[in-house]
User: What shape does this take?
Amino acid sequence: MATKIIHFMVNGRLEQAEFGADCSAADVKDLFRAAAEAGPHHILKMYNTNGSVVNISPLLEANSEDSYYRLEVVASNLKSVGMPKELDTMEYRLHYLESKVNEDLGKTPTIISDMKSQVESFKRKLESVEHLSWMGLFKEDSDHQLSKLSPKPKTSQLSVHEEHQQVRREFLNMSTLQVTEEVREHLKTPIFDNWQWEDAEMLVLLQVMFTDLEFLTAFHIELDVLQNFLFKVYCHYNSIPFHNFRHCFCVTQMMYGLIWLTDLRSKIARIDLLIMLTSALCHDLDHPGYNNVYQVTSLPISSSHHQGQECNILKNLTCEQYKYIRGGMIKCILATDMARHNEILNKFKTMRPVFNFTNKEHKEVLMNIMVKVSDISNEARPMAVAEPWLDCLLQEFFNQSDTEKLKGLPVTPFMDRDKVSKPSSQTNFIRFVLLPLFSELTKLFPCLEQHILEPVRRALEYYSDLERASKEEERTAKA
Assistant: This one.
């Protein structure tokens, strides 16, 4: 297997890494973590010679010593943050234990020496590691203390409600800071890496989307009401492998990116942009993870209007505006049902050659198509971002087929772990669903070819190669 050599600068020294194209994204990231002397919870950034951020993945291009990448642990100033009280107590107790043991034995046992070493190492890390978010989520000149913002690690002892409230506190604390221009611009692109962000940070970024599209001023949405609404949406996504809050964020972020890439702001009314973005946000609310029992209803759409004014982002609209938004969202969310895929795509194909943005029917079908594309857009993202999503989807599929087998129900063929392989599931989906849909949208917006169509073509080539290799292995094994 051919290998590639990556040259990069880290901690003031020039290093090189060698790995094959068959390495997993996790293996590659672990390799660079080791080089940066970073722990598993630290986030890394890689820059090319132009200073642009690049994805750390097996797809990194080989380079020379003269064109090295720059690798760093993401940071924010921690000088003003003192040591946790818990550490002081731990250190005091350890010294006391050591002195008592020395009195009795005359020497320090190895286990205590090891513990002292670990505590010292932890102290050095707290003093030197500068970490907040993978791209520097917030401006460094903020007056706020990082100690008020650092997410606490989740523990299994917390109930779902307690975890949600913890996320809410982190979200509200973070929301008072300004997101950097670098992140704002990156948020408008399909290459955005969702895996680098915590739940509270994603809520902050959703808030950015609503504010940067000027929805708050246009529709008289109060900031605290928007925050309550976003948190309510977060609470209504279940902790399941694929159709979870992170998926909701990804779909909304892609919708947001498409709005900017196609300059839709100059082509359709802002109220239609609000419909599309909010539909993306709400399209899988309360999804149970089983498609044969999942029913798309209009209930989640109207929930914010009936659950009290504190989370009702539509409360200051006229009755006509509210009805228009609700009706538009129902259509957009129902359009994400794959059972209607061919119907909606064929409608769009028919009108696309004579498309007119001022035609109400044309515009509605386009809005449906844009939400559909956003919903199934993972393969338009870099492979290091997209492939983990496929693993999550297959896990959810296999969970359903396992349940169907246990209950003696007919097993959905494309969800059967005994019949489906990762490459075969994607080649068919890309060839017969994604490419026809993405190609048709690109004909209306040629600028999308490089952003969503070309990555999907590359994904098809990648999974086709894997599928051929898998079949060749099977033939060799049988021979």
Notes: Residues 75-87, 124-136, 138-155, 292-306 have pLDDT under 50 and may be disordered. The longest strand covers residues 3-10. Strands lie at 3-10, 13-20, 44-47, 53-54, 69-73. The first helix runs from residue 25 to 35.
